């Protein structure tokens, strides 16, 4: 998967189907990657926000492959 294009599309709030077409992947693959790499964080005012981190997605993927 082209990480730079993927991140750019996420920053531009493109939908999953658009990203999938752009990268030549299945929408479910894109959805799985977003879910693996998205974490919930707290701001200093204790409000919650979510953010995608490619490193987190890669770590979760590698742990899943080791278990299987």
UniProtKB/TrEMBL annotation:
Segments forming domain Transposase IS30-like HTH: 10-37
Family annotation (InterPro entries): IS30-like_HTH
Domain of life: Bacteria
Protein's name according to its UniProt entry: Helix-turn-helix domain-containing protein
Species classification: Bacteria, Bacillati, Bacillota, Bacillota incertae sedis, Caldicellulosiruptorales
